[in-house]
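Reviewers of the previous submission asked for a worked example of the structure-prediction workflow described in the proposal, so we include one complete record here. The input consisted solely of the amino acid sequence. No template or homolog information was supplied to the procedure at any stage.
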Amino acid sequence: EFLDVDPRTLRASMNRPMGADPFKLARQTAKFGSSTVGMQPPWVWRCKDGELMIADGMTRATRVAEQLPGQLIRVEVTEEHPHYDVSGLPTIGDLVP
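From that input alone, the workflow returned the following structure tokens.
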């Protein structure tokens, strides 16, 4: 399933609760800037209460949230985990200025 969402609403992954790797983010920003052309959709898991948690694509989602506030991105829901409570994880919006 593909959805168009504001990347600031996505929950950080359990593996990267502090957000995108700053070196990878800087490298990707230098290479792609604010363009989303050709960007692969981040993979997300649908968790408890319909919250979406990033499974793969933290850097891509963070770059768009920083460079293009308010722009929606396409994400692919790859798994359903209705019992995972991710409400304690920060959203990308919590992590970017």
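The helical segments are 22-32, 58-67, 92-95. We consider this example representative of the routine output the project will generate in years two and three.
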